[in-house]
């Protein structure tokens, strides 16, 4: 049993998809350990996406992720990082399989509904950054 961090992005919150997205993770077998609707400031967004800060779309990414509330979650489950990413689907919705969140609800890589940690180390860091706890 381990943990991951998942966040419904502003487009998913604005479209009223939070309940359906939480349900998909619960149906898969995840347990919700912490969750909060929150508004990110630019500094928090820049830290979260630090690994992309040299990409040409970085400014748009920060604008987008701070454009409205996000729904942040700590999820617990077996092989949490990999299982959550399989529920989420490929980064670009064009490549995301039907039955995944991005495959079913998104069309554009710039607004792809949900984020999931990409490693155990990222999950630990993101849970700490978003929920201010030592985990
Ligand atoms: P995420 O961090 O959101 O779960 O996404 P990911 O691991 O699947 O993909 P990553 O490479 O970390 O990219 C983070 C987010 O940046 C946006 N993006 N935009 N305009 C573009 O070409 C582009 N490419 C990536 C996406 O919102 C992606 O989820």
TrEMBL record:
**Enzyme Commission code:** 2.7.4.6
Which reactions fall under this protein's catalytic activity?
a ribonucleoside 5'-diphosphate + ATP = a ribonucleoside 5'-triphosphate + ADP; a 2'-deoxyribonucleoside 5'-diphosphate + ATP = a 2'-deoxyribonucleoside 5'-triphosphate + ADP
**Cofactor(s) this protein cannot do without:** Mg(2+)
Q: Which residues form the Nucleoside diphosphate kinase-like domain?
A: 1-135
Key word Kinase present in the record?
yes
Which SUPFAM superfamilies does the UniProt record give? Answer: Nucleoside diphosphate kinase, NDK
Give the range the annotation lists for the signal sequence: none
Where's it found, cell-wise?
Cytoplasm
Q: Which residues bind ATP?
A: 9, 57, 85, 91, 102, 112
* Family of this protein: Belongs to the NDK family.
* UniProt function note: Major role in the synthesis of nucleoside triphosphates other than ATP. The ATP gamma phosphate is transferred to the NDP beta phosphate via a ping-pong mechanism, using a phosphorylated active-site intermediate.
Q: What assembly does the database describe for this protein?
A: Homotetramer.
What is the protein named?
A: Nucleoside diphosphate kinase
| Originating gene | ndk
């Amino acid at each position: 049993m381990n943990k991951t961090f998942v966040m419904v992005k502003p487009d998913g919150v604005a479209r009223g998809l939070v309940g359906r997205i939480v349900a998909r993770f619960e149906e898969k077998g995840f347990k919700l350990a912490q969750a909060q609707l929150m508004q990110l400031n630019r500094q928090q967004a820049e830290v979260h996406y630090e690994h992309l800060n040299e990409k040409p779309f970085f400014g748009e990414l920060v604008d987008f992720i701070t454009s409205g509330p996000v729904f942040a979650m700590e999820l617990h489950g077996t092989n949490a990082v990999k299982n959550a990413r399989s529920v989420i689907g490929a980064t670009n919705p064009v490549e995301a399989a039907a039955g995944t969140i991005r495959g079913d609800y998104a069309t554009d890589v710039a607004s792809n509904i949900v984020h999931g940690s990409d490693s155990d180390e990222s999950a630990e860091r993101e849970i700490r950054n978003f929920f201010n706890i030592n985990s």
